[in-house]
Amino acid sequence: MALGKDYASQECSIARALEIVGERWTLLVVRDAFYGVRRYNDFLVHLGIPRAVLAARLQTLTTEGVLEKRRYQQSPPRDEYVLTERGLALWPTLRALGLWGRDHFTDAQLRVFRHATCGTERELGRYDECPDCGTVVPVSDVEMLPGPGADPNPADPISRVMLKPKRLLEPIELESV
Ligand SMILES: [Zn+2]
To answer: What is the CATH number of the domain that holds 80?
Structure first.
């Protein structure tokens, strides 16, 4: 094991979690999976990540049970990556990290999240509570819209799909662009 690659001497559960999601790019791959990205090439174009790094991150996330690999095409064989229960449980972490980033490091808000099913137009609260109906909104009922900081004319097709409101986890269909 390369120096500093894990936290084997730590029994802390945060250290244990960081062994899985603490590498560079990993949480952004997970974030994109929440946004509906499932396919290798789609992660690639949206993240601008080196191919080998993406392959390694997808491998780790699959091995650790955060993502599940599903074959969607037989010839040539193509797989997609879908969040498992263990992966879905990362949503509050990602959400809190995003809010922390906005509070302390950037004013740019690229995404707005709101309750998809009650007709509200107001943003979810810090704990994903709906300001209108009071529900703590499950991730599958969260609607994502572009925020005031979103590029209205992005270069990559995944970002263009996300200019329209969509639910989290709903697969991104590039054909619809
Ligand atoms: Zn609501």
So the answer is: 1.10.10.10
Q: How far is the CA of 138 from the centre of ligand 1 (A)?
A: 11
pLDDT surpassing 70 at residue 150: yes
Q: Assess if residue 175 is contained within a domain.
A: no
Q: How far is the CA of 9 from the centre of ligand 1 (A)?
A: 44
Domain span including residue 80: 13-87
Residue 137's nearest CA partner among 146, 129, 145 is 129
pTM of the model: 0.92
Question: How far, in Å, from the CA of 113 to the mean position of ligand 1?
Answer: 11
Q: What are phi and psi of 41, to 5 degrees?
A: -65, -30
Q: Is the domain of 98 the same as that of 78? A: no
Q: How far, in Å, is the centroid of ligand 1 from the Cα of 124?
A: 8
Question: How much of the chain exceeds pLDDT 70, in percent?
Answer: 94
Band (pLDDT 50/70/90 cuts) for residue 3 is: low
